[in-house]
Predict the 3D structure of the following.
Amino acid sequence: MMDKKQIAHVLKEVGILLELKGENKFKTQAYANAARAVETFTGNVEALRTEKIRGVGKATQENIIELLDSGTLGLLDELRAEVPAGVQQMIRIKGLGAKKVRQLYEAGIETVDQLERACHAGRIAQMSGFGRKTQTNILEGIALLKQYAGKMRYDQALSLAEPLMTILQNDSRVDALSFMGSLRRRCEVVRDIDILIGTDDPAGLTQSICEHPAFGEVIDRSSQRIQTRLAGGQEVDLSLVAPERFPVALFYTTGHKTVVKQWQTQLEQAGLTLEWDQILQQGKPLLFANEAAIFNLLDLPYLPPEIREPEWTDFRHLPNLINAGDLRGVLHVHTTYSDGVHSVEEMAQAAAGLGYHYVGITDHSQSSTVANGMKPERVYAQLREIDRLNACLETIEILKGIECDILADGSLDYSDDLLAEFDFVIASVHTKFNMKEGEMTERIIRAMSNPYVRVLGHPTGRLLLQRESYPVNLEAVIDAAAEYHVALELNANPRRLDLDWRWLRKATERGVKILIGPDAHRMGGLTDTTQYGIPIARKGGLRKDDVLNCFTLEHIRAFFKR
Ligand SMILES: [Zn+2]
Ligand SMILES: [Zn+2]
């Protein structure tokens, strides 16, 4: 069934499509209002059927009921069919609202490509309400849109792939099964879903897969390969091999192609030929029980998939990579005191249930009004509540933290006196992203120099496939982190995964600690730490000693007091 967020999303889209169609302002506004009302409604989703809610009128409530009953909305389908697809795509260009897109549509521009050409010809700058600056912004937005097209985040890929894996696992003809490529390497963003199947019955299995609706529309099929497209446009690539060839195929299709190429050359020098599903010696295939046996041939230890990346230059001397079991605590957790869904106690109990010894609660500070940031009175109320809970919770200790906004000038959102009340402070940028690099870097470093700041939250502000990092000199930020003993966050929310893993080693080599924080806004979000944070930490070469939340409670308290 749909949740409030999904319903709000549909209503918002209806509002936008109505505006694009040129419907009157009241009607379009009604949908925007209803979307906001649903999003902020605190009751149960079922109550949306009957309750009178400010901002939800009769028509929109009927739409909501239709969505709850059927999961779809006829009106939305009709609107989507009426407004050209290219125009709907233009809405996704950063900085273009429905009003401007409608103006473009009325001027005869119906696709992103037409819009791009018009910008290059300088025609958009001349339209009323646009100007040269908007034209430049649109071109930048189009470049981003193209860069993001056809890609998905790891978590999105995983949620699409898992049902397919279940179907295959339950098929007795499937002898071995694995992801391949970037999905197996746990890359933060992937292009498609690649699955490798070991089977003795490729023909029969291919037939079944092509007939199974879950795999979507078949684009191409051959004796060893099936390509399909899911309803949302994502591509699935399935390769079938004989079970005895599975280890080599897995080896070949997992590593980044630059890395595999190097290994191929190395094998060649030893008189062996690496093909995609076999290794030949004087024309005869060698047999391998598993991937480890192939690495053995290369005189390498077994390399976990996530590190088979060109950024790794020395596979011979691997650090002892962090494992989920090394984590002792979880920090960067929101509650109902700001924009979280669950209470302090619920989050603490959930963290205890996951085996953590401590949990660091970090709600938003006062200037984050959209995130229901805390005024000082509420801070004190929360601190008292944590004291009460700590007095009775047995298996877990709650640390008093705050995710404090870094204001435009680099000062913090609370006075030092108030900051002194917390066990630790995470400082984060949530506003004014459009500064110049020098200004932004200075702003962040000034915040890090505050004696109460212990962690820099999501250091670049990126949202994968949605928003680029703000301009910032990370070398300088890492230097400042080392100087001021501030840890950098690897935010484990799969939309962020920020700091990018390619920077992690650069930080730890300078002695900077990394916090793997889930930025959890609900109990279920706590596991982002292990599900997404740990693989990315391993990609970045982190060892347990590099990671703040692998410290014991005593040790982390000492780090915070410093
Ligand atoms: Zn944040
Ligand atoms: Zn947060």
